[in-house]
Amino acid sequence: MSALAITPTFLDDFSRLTPEVQLNTLAAMRAYQTGDLADLESVADAADPRVRVVAIDPDWSGVVVPEPRPGRPEPSEDAQYRLITVRPRDEALRYARGLRADTPVDTGAAARVEPPTPTGPPELASALNAPFDQWQLTLHPDQHRITEAHYKGATQITGGPGTGKTVIALHRAAHLAELDAAAHPEDTRESVLLTTYNRALAQSLADRLDQLLPDPTVRGRVRVVTIDSLARSVVQAHSSVAPRMIGKDELARRWRAVAVADGLPFSGRFLVDEWEQVILAQGLDLLPAYIRCERSGRVQHLAPEHRRQVWETVRRYVGAMRVEGLWAYPQLAAEATRLLAADGPLFRHAVVDEAQDLHPTQWRMLRAAVPEGEDDLFIVGDPHQRVSDNRVSLASLGINVRGRGHRLRVSYRVTQEILDWSMPILGRRAALGMDDNADTLAGYRSLLRGPAPVVRGCADRAEELAALGDWVRVWLEAGVRPADIAVAGRNHWIVRGIAKELEARGVATAPLEGTGRAEAVRVGTLHRLKGQEFRCVALIGVSDHLLPPKAAIEAADGDQVALEHAVQQERTLLFVACTRARDALYVSHVGRPSRLITEQW
């Protein structure tokens, strides 16, 4: 059976085709390779009779030529063909008539052909054409002043996806480490904290910081760790037993069961949220303070007598956790704060990335870990990318950033086409910032231009995985490094299917949160994409029965406020995942697409 491959020179044409024609091209290639497509069509009056065309759809055709094979000048039944270009039908025929099969670039030229890149302003041209690991360290020239400035106190940097916030955080941490090495040459301890929300991003930050700070004596001054790991290390330093953590969903399930057994009119999710987002968030230690407090962000009203009942119930349930030796993450941060208040600060400076997802108890811990003063806290985040339940007012926590804030409105790490498609997913106009002001995306734009995102509907899961394999193949043959490609799904079941499909095709894969197998496509859940950056991203299983997931809806326990909040979290999660792609975004679904994307059409 004949095979149909891609010549390297075709990829520039492919990136300029409309998404529909791109999908039809891949379908035609797959059909030909499985023997489901009619024979390649000869071209009348062709200068070279070996040139063929293949139908892409009624209006478009591809031009193909056989691979040269020594001793076999004419195409045979097992000939290897390469697709050169896809053009409108009449134009493809005209092109094919004048083409000779020995004209295209030979297969060995693939290594010399640069993969298509987005177009951008002159000041970014060389960086866009550099290897992607170098691009990941590239600051926009206008942003150096932010990373190298001297601030009289805490500073906040906000901006939409692709504005370079994480790169700014990296360069700021490196700059502070260099200043600290010069100011305290004899004190070589870790004096700069670089922290963030999840492990995958923390590992990525650590790897890139190694490149920025090749001197180990300077690099050793920066501790890169997640905010939860910081809390755990502080608490564990004062105990011989490592804290046993319990996640919010598991805790809600436990509390729901005991609430039902106790005959309480509150759901487990409501009780956990009330504990974490009101009692722990405000640091309330006594019942009178809880009765008097403002429950900001909690729409369901609680009368004083109901607050008393909630307080006693939560106190009893938390006591049971203590007996088991279990900790919730915000609770652990509160305990770390107490210990730091007694022991004293750990660092001279802290740089906080993905700051919008930190809990108030974690901010109190940071405040206790770094003494108040010049260049103390450098805070980077975007309230529009918040995927947690946390709502924070920095001023209420003793962190004053007024007059020392910068709002970034120009993206240079995501194309305008991807932004235009992704932004409506949020379904809202403004978000509450950590400085208590409304934060909008008004005036937000990108400096980069590229192909439009592709949305592929499939009949079943097998077709969806096969289509994914075809699309990843196109990216790889375009010269995109495997490690610069990420494929993600909403749950681990989808992720396992992705990995199996790619590995079966001979494409190496590695977890999104891992560092092994450098030349491997990264695969993981949507959550693991947070804070990361890739050239090409594929999101699989964006179907209505999977997103929002049934578990997230059920966790609301019928609470309409909790349900709306859960759906908004899913919107934000999908928006964040889409904007992890710099060059190209591919989205697929089985059956009906998710309402989170159809509502924008």
TrEMBL record:
It comes from the Bacteria. ATP binds at residues 159-166. GO terms for molecular function: 3'-5' DNA helicase activity; ATP binding; DNA binding; hydrolase activity. InterPro entries: DNA_helicase_UvrD-like_C (IPR014017), DNA_helicase_UvrD/REP (IPR000212), P-loop_NTPase (IPR027417), UvrD-like_ATP-bd (IPR014016). The keyword Cell membrane does not apply. It is an enzyme of class 5 (isomerase). It catalyses: ATP + H2O = ADP + phosphate + H(+); Couples ATP hydrolysis with the unwinding of duplex DNA by translocating in the 3'-5' direction. Its EC number is 5.6.2.4. Residues 138-415 form the UvrD-like helicase ATP-binding domain. GO terms for biological process: recombinational repair. Keywords: ATP-binding, Helicase, Hydrolase, Isomerase, Nucleotide-binding. Transmembrane segments: none annotated. SUPFAM superfamilies: P-loop containing nucleoside triphosphate hydrolases (SSF52540). This is DNA 3'-5' helicase. It comes from Nocardiopsis aegyptia.
